[in-house]
Amino acid sequence: MAETKYGKYIIKGTGKNSPAVLEGLKNWSGIQHRMKWEYISQPVLMSEKAHSHDFDEFMCFLGLDPSNALNFGAEIELSLGEEGEKNIIDAATIVCIPKGLVHGPLNFKKIGKPILFCDIYLSPEYISKPVSK
Amino acid sequence: MAESKYGKYIFKEPRQEPPQRKPVDARAITLFEDLTKAIGKFNINFNFVGELGPHVLNDPPHRHNCDEILFFIPADPEIAPDLGGVVEIGLGDDWEKQTITTAAVICIPKGLQHCPIYVKKVTKPFYFGHCELESKYASSETPAS
After folding, report:
1. CB contact under 8 A, B69 and A15
2. Which listed residue, A27, A43, B73, B118, has the most CB atoms within 10 A of its CB?
């Protein structure tokens, strides 16, 4: 097949949770924001320790029925702030985490129906800063 | 006025309700400026749309004054990374056709013309979306309100 001019802009998935390759991709035609996604089908404790970073992050939670993404069957606990305020996510949700806001752990506690978790962040590199006690 | 003999052959303003069709897409979740105004301004807008059936997206070829990512996410983990459909997208001024059949992300650097997007086939509904680095969606075809 002939080489295309714009094919370099496309990253195609090769694994179950693709395109994980976007994570850690430092140079992508100058694009400075990144995203990754993951299917969550069983309870899992993700991002165990509270942390923050120097860029904005957006966590997206949605059902796996594209005809009705609001059809959501999971319960997730997200701690926010240095005091670790626990917030429950039990509907299709976007969480906006401005730079500097401490967050985590992220606990997918109950998964009745598998969901899609998508993380968008405004940095080419995901660098976390641990919370100093 | 006298009864017309041939008026019955004339049908003025003929109309019929369009046939009911299955929806071809469904809005999922969206980050837009007004949603976040209580907590501050973020330099981003994005959305997820469920793609349910073949159609051509409304967006004509356009470009942005900022960087953008387009993404295609299978909604069935059992078939991933297969997308569950076939999408054609035109990239560049010459509408170079790229075909997407798997999970994919496309970076659209500022100024790069893109679209049309043709969802050619859907065997399993999937998610499509954009993520643009402006607080409000705007393009050469859609000025910010």
Report:
1. no
2. B73
Residue A16 has pLDDT above 70, yes or no: no
Q: Could you tell me the two tokens for B45?
A: 């807008």
Q: Which residues contact B139 (CB under 8 A, 6 or more apart)?
A: B59, B62, B63, B64
Per the document, the length of chain B is 145
pLDDT tens for B116-133 read 999 999 999 999 999 999
Q: Hey, what domains does chain A have and what are their CATH numbers?
A: 16-130 (2.60.120.10)
Contact (Cβ atoms closer than 8 angstroms) between residue A107 and residue A75:
no
Q: Taking CB atoms and an 8 Å cutoff, what residues of chain A touch B115?
A: none
Question: CA Rg, chain A, in Å?
Answer: 16
Instruction: State chain A's mean pLDDT as an integer.
Output: 88
Q: CB B74: neighbour CB atoms within 10 A?
A: 28
Q: Please state the rounded mean pLDDT for residues A25-43.
A: 86
Please judge whether B102 and A56 are an interchain contact, meaning their C-beta atoms are less than 8 angstroms apart: no
